[in-house]
Amino acid sequence: SQTWVPPVDGNICIHVIGGGGAGGGGTARCGGAGGYSKKNSLAVTTGGSFTVVVGAKGVGVYGTGGGTGGNSTVAGTGLSATLTANGGVGGTSTSGAGGSAANGVRGRAAKRGSNTLAGDKPFEPQNAGPLSGGGGYVSSCTNTDASQKGGNGGIGGGGGCGYIASGSSSSMGGDGGSGCVIIQYLPA
């Protein structure tokens, strides 16, 4: 949590993105993306202030469901209600749902990590760019000592799954992407 004080008077646009859920480890299910909330235009002055919370990423865990992303919020002068973008749900036996949003003009983000069949090929994480889900890793590998991890999500994106058909406890879902808050001054 931190406080933001407008440096100049003007109109701002606020974008709020929740943290992405992590992909499942030991399950071929990916994490959900963080929600998205937006305030199109708000007049601000240097006498106002805002409390900003940026949601943490969901963290992948070996052999079990991924962690849920943290909620991002903005509250302050001139806002009638807190802008909230909830974190995406971690992948378990089902793919994680995208985070919901409140008091903005947009609903939840739709993108999440995706599953990609990798077979027994050498593993290379498919990490995502901003606002994208990490690639999943699904393998029929019989090496129970293998330690595989799904790709990490970009800002607000869900993490990819990590699944090895034989020895799934040694696989790990990719982390979700951290949340983000953008405060943008609009042209006069």
Detail the topology: elements first, then pairings.
Elements: E1 2-4, E2 10-17, E3 36-44, E4 50-53, E5 72-76, E6 83-85, E7 101-102, E8 137-139, E9 148-149, E10 162-164, E11 171-172, E12 180-185
Parallel strand pairs: 8-10, 9-11
Antiparallel strand pairs: 1-4, 2-3, 2-12, 4-5, 5-6, 6-7
What would you note in describing this structure?
With 188 residues, this protein is mostly beta strands. Helix content is 0%, strand content 27%. It is built from no helices and twelve strands. It has a five-stranded antiparallel sheet with strand order 1-4-5-6-7, with no helix packed on it. The two termini are 29 Å apart.
- Radius of gyration, Cα only, in angstroms? 18 Å
- The helical percent reads under 10%
**Based on DSSP secondary structure assignment, what is the total number of beta strands?**
12
Average of pLDDT: 83
- The number of helical runs is 0
Task: Jot down its keywords.
188 residues, mainly beta, 5-stranded antiparallel sheet, 3-stranded antiparallel sheet, 0% helix, 27% strand
Précis, in short:
The chain is mainly β and about 190 residues long.
